[in-house]
Design brief:
Blueprint (H helix, E strand, L loop, with lengths): L5 H11 L1 H17 L9 E5 L5 E5 L3 H9 L4 H10 L5 E5 L5 H10 L4 E5 L3 H14 L4 E4 L2 E2 L4 E8 L7 E2 L10 E9 L1 H8 L6 E6 L5 H6 L2 H4 L6 E7 H6 L4 H5 L5 E7 L13 E2 L8 E8 L7 H7 L7
Parallel strand pairs: 3-4, 3-10, 4-5, 6-9, 10-11
Antiparallel strand pairs: 1-2, 7-8, 7-9, 11-14, 12-13, 12-14
Helix pairs in contact: 1-2
């Protein structure tokens, strides 16, 4: 019995299976990147995204490399944030990583706003510092701290296999077997808001991507959630990570009963816009992985939803 030729099978797998198409797409992106003189060098350099905004490639960071190859990241969320955040706002980036949202927000709040970015891991924080320096993010203040329910020091787990997107205050399966533990400084949003004093009333937007530790963040953010002028939130919902932290989707959403909740499913690659609109959550089960956009129903920032709606970025149901 003759064997089936392997070349047609490989061609079929490459063109007609999801993983094959993904691998082929990645290789084509790598080939395009290889033509970039800056990419051929080891190190860090500034380049232009598809939106013409500038960002930084850190060659030793997988998330940074992915954004460079795709020239975009979470495009629908990016447009929504661009409509929701205004000049003069104070905004928070919790789990800033190498600073994609930090750089976006710094440009939106100029000239007299401010960005506070939190990233606890030493290696990633160093890259975040480099992003700030190279892009001249003059409105950004960096904090090498984890966001938790109290002030002090906590364990911080990170992948040593090159994935700086996989970092958490709890050891979990997504980190893989190659990991390390660091002892890092932590603070709560309640403590941070107290230190800000009257300026805390200008906090108009909070982005939070902390790999399932959101419940701990929320428990330490009661003053901000219940503020007279509560901010708009962009929070990653990762059901497996939440479970490993001992919490659930309901735990995450319950404190935001006075907000309208929209969601955007996470896509791969994250440069793809799966839908031109965020879907409104009406109590149904959420996708396992999605970004939540929460607009307050009261206060100074409640009217911001109108600009996002007028741009056709929010589905009513």
């Amino acid at each position: 019995m003759s064997s089936i030729p392997t070349l047609p099978i490989k061609a079929y797998n490459a063109l007609f299976t999801p993983m094959g198409r993904k691998n082929l797409r990645d290789r084509l992106k790598e080939c395009r990147a290889a033509l970039d003189s800056g990419y051929k060098k080891n190190g860090t350099f500034v380049y232009a995204l598809d939106t013409s905004r500038r960002f930084v490639l850190h060659r030793d960071n997988q998330l940074s490399k992915l954004i460079f190859l795709e020239r975009a990241y979470e495009p629908l969320e990016t447009i929504i944030v661009t409509r929701a955040v205004q000049r003069g706002d104070v905004v928070l980036d919790l789990g800033a990583n190498v600073g994609y949202y930090t750089a976006l927000l710094d440009g939106l709040v100029k000239p007299n706003g401010q960005v506070h970015s939190f990233e606890p891991g030493q290696g990633t924080f160093s890259r975040l510092e480099e992003t700030k320096r190279l892009l001249k993010l003059e409105r950004t203040v960096l904090h090498q701290k984890a966001i938790s329910d109290s002030v002090g020091h906590i364990d911080f787990w990170l992948s040593t296999a090159g994935s700086d997107a996989q970092q958490s205050t709890v050891k979990m399966a997504a980190l893989g077997e190659e990991l390390a533990r660091q002892r890092v400084a932590a603070t709560s949003l309640d403590a941070f808001v107290k230190d800000m004093g009257k300026e805390s009333g200008r906090i108009a937007f909070v982005k939070c991507d902390i790999e399932g530790a959101e419940l701990s963040m929320i428990q330490g953010a009661q003053s901000l959630i219940a503020a007279q002028d509560p901010p708009i939130w962009l929070i990653e919902h990762n059901r497996p990570a939440l479970r490993e932290h001992g919490s659930s989707t309901n735990d995450l959403l319950a404190p935001f009963s006075n907000h309208d909740v929209y969601f955007v499913p996470l896509c791969w690659p994250p440069s793809i816009m799966a839908s031109p609109q965020a879907s409104k959550w009406s109590g149904e089960d959420l996708p396992d992985e999605c970004n939540l956009i929460l607009f307050p129903k009261k206060g100074a920032y409640a009217k911001r939803v109108a600009a996002v709606q007028q741009a056709g970025l929010l589905a009513s149901s």
